Amino acid sequence: MYVPNGVPQYLELYCYPLRILKLRKNPVFVVLTQSDILIYQTHPISPLFCFKKPKASVLKHGSNNGLAFDSDSMTIAVSTDKNYVVLFRLQFDVEEQSLRPSSSKTVPMEGPGECLGTIKCVVRHSLTLRYDSGISCIFARKNVLLCAAKNVPVLNAAHYNANDSNDEQKQKVLTKAIDFSQQSWYISKDTHIQKLFYDESMGLFLFVTANGFVYTCFDLFSQLKTNDDKKGVNGICVHNPNTEYANDCLGNATAISVNSKFSLAYVGTEKGYVCAYQIRDFGRTFVLSRIHKPCTTVQPVFHLDTSPDGFQLLAGFGESWFTYTPYLRPVSNNTSFGSGSFGVVDGFWDLDGTSYCCLEQWKPIANDDGSSAIAPVARTASSTCMTIIPFLRNTIACGVQTALHLSALHTTDRIFIPNTYYTYASDVDNFGVNSWKQVEYPPDYICLNWPIRHVAFDRAGEYVAIAGRYGFAYCKIHANKWKMFHDELAEQSFTVTGGMVWYHNFLVCAVRTGNGLELQLYSRDRDLLIENIQSRLPVTAPILTISRDGPHLLAYTSDNTLYHVQIVVERGSGKLQFVSKEDFNNVFPTPYRIRSLSWFLPDYAKKFPPKQFLSYAIFIILIDGKLIILTSDKKGTEKSVYYQSYILCKNVEFYLYNDKETHEEASLYTHSLWAITADGLKVWLNFYELLHVFCLKKNTAGDNLGSIEEDVSSNFDKLQLSSPPLTSEVLVSSDATSDRYTHSRSSSSIYFGPNSPLPKTLTDFQAETEMRNRAIVLNLTDSFMSILLINGLLMSYTSDYRSTNTSGLSYANVEVSVKPFVPSLALGLLKAGEEAESIKILSMFRDQSYGTYLLEMMLQQVVVSQEEGNTTWLLSSVARVLERFPKQKWNVVANCIRKIEMKFWPSMFKVFGQPTDIFQNALQEDNILAAQECLLVLHVHDGISKHCKEMLQLLQQVQQQKQTDVMNGLIDYLSMLDVEGVMSNILRQACKTMQSSLDSGMSTEVCDQYTHELEARAQALDL
């Protein structure tokens, strides 16, 4: 989702940095050195304050070695090597700028997020604490300082008051110690804690021990507030370094990070493994999900950091860094950066994720006088510096599901839209178009409202809307003309929180205003004014995601309510009309984990009025990386709505659902589902028909729910529930796949037990298995960008490092890659036994200039990638498909044989015949190009001396069709490979054949010309 782009920037420092820490709520970061604290602002990048320790303080307290920051009390905590922790108060004065221009004529231009300028910052000493047990690491949060002891597994907690005076004698500090060696779940009895980590959004506390274990504590900060010292701390082991993987153990943990958007915990080890653990049961269960080791050599993982939106993970190694998707699919790295490659030991993402500021991996070196110094591992520059890596971010990460049909890449100040979208609108055959159309954000908007959080394209790709901290703006792409609010106060009166989506010339926004939360409808034909808002619709809670299907709009809120709204257009004006809403409290326990939601109606439900659509709709939901299908039904005249869930696949990053007719013959595309997963791109063609066959066959009218309930009652013991789950844990259970529950919205709570009411439960898992098996997996090597359905093309992008020869400047370049997905899709249908559908999808591109290329790719994939035992039957299926394309068949076969390795030839000859047979078939079809390819194969396979007859036949056919270019090219190529010296004899024999031919249809002059040319070539070969 993120790829490096452009030239890295460097921030020079005058001394060696130990740590770098970004403030969670402010555009400020702190750099810690052995004696100083440096405060920097990110937008604009400028120094704010430098706190230099006096020499007396350094001698008394020691040198700095650890850093923590409490965002709630604006407190900086610094630990020293003499077991002291010094607290500093950080204060900002936004009204006063620390750097002012010398005159009014030199006022700098304000960039993204630079409306405040360089603010004034003051750092004051607050408190000094000493720990006799030593200090291994520290952490601060909500006026609580956590300090891990150095040699024993003890965690010391100190409660300080941020509002106390600066007099240390008057400040009260309450302390509490937790001895983990007394806890039964703590395996590392005598090992101290080495690293502390806390994720604010999930409330998850993790720590790493010196022997490489990772643990989590449940509700640690709540227990620290109690005065009961005898009460134990609950926790579990997350990572065990002795876990075996690929005949090796994972190794000691060295770095950790948490992805709250996807409920994942990442652990990096000393052996170079990056492990992803799925977080379940509200942080009570951790399941190892994915493992990746990018480096062939053993390099420890020094640093892990997740981007703000959760779509990217950066891993810093000893001599390189890598970026991954949430489920550890590699995206980019700097291993090809040459001498400019470096490792990452610490760093942070910018607020919008378009840059990463990092510290390079350092190592001590010996000076000439015998003393030691610090120098970077790879860089040879004399100055110490931090590196800022620029990234391009995919707009998929900041768009709702309905707007993913078109995506682009954007940076801090502009958006890059591939010209491929507009090139292929007219079916132009030009694979590999990599040019971009750049649309710069309006400076007035981006200066005040950076970072950009939401991006939405309209269906035609003509307009793009962006939304930052406040308001929004939209642009006509081809004209590069932006439209913004005329009144700055009106723009800052609301914030887009739940996304945006286009409907024709209307834009729907889920916003938060000063008066509450609502949906707003704007027309792009009118000026952006508060009085020009077409319609408003208030909601009760923040909107998490919106989705549109035609004029029907779905809005899902944080209080587990699903709104159905209809966009009504009359006489050029639009209106948001409330239709219905449903309560999902008994279905989803944690609304914030739902990242996208879409729906469609079964055929039998379209006869009902719109108010009942939610009761019969089929929902596609992405929650915790699982793509779930939720089918609903009503039983008779009851008001209860029953839901049955099916997990289609796991490790899903995002998905696209197509519900539009894109081609006259593209009925397969009409209801197709495309899921981007860690293993590639999974496709369900005719998704609605599959769902109707396998999942809705028993519930088209809700009459069979009674029999399902009876079956549940008789098989309750087979559900294998270890303990009665909570109501909020029914759908997202810790096991995930074996048990499915069907909920009724009529009841406010659900209880489990022998004597308690049972929920409706789906006990037949065959439907879910069948749906999973119908998925077609497409290989995805680069980062996904978009799918051009009407052209059968998959568009992706990748980044590689380049350097200039003159200046030696190295930079990252991003290119668009366009590849056909039709061959893999057709093969997937063949494997599923859908030969007719495979022929149908290939026939859509029969008349395209790259139609033959698609068939050739399909045949080549079968021959090269299939196992030997499965090649014959699949090749036979492909051969039957090629029979439906007689004009392209022999070209496809001949080109494929030429391009594959010789070890695959026997399989091809077994199905399509010997090379001589293929040659004769091509001649019968008057396919000169295919016959020429076959002749070259014969030359390699048997030698040209054994196939003089075929050579003469081809030359005669060339003579009849007057294709001199083909003849000359073939003769030149075979002459260079003629080690047996038979080419001249063949050419003379061809001369005789031409002169004696009476039915060639050629004039005497043309025949003499051919004969003279062949004779000249024969004489040249004799010499």
UniProtKB/TrEMBL annotation:
The keyword Membrane applies. Keywords: Membrane. Residues 829-984 form the RIC1 C-terminal alpha solenoid region domain. Pfam families: Beta-prop_RIC1_2nd, RIC1. One of its GO terms (cellular component) is cytosol. It is found in: Membrane. One of its GO terms (biological process) is positive regulation of TORC2 signaling. This is Guanyl-nucleotide exchange factor. It comes from Schizosaccharomyces japonicus (strain yFS275 / FY16936) (Fission yeast). The lineage of its organism: Eukaryota, Fungi, Dikarya, Ascomycota, Taphrinomycotina.
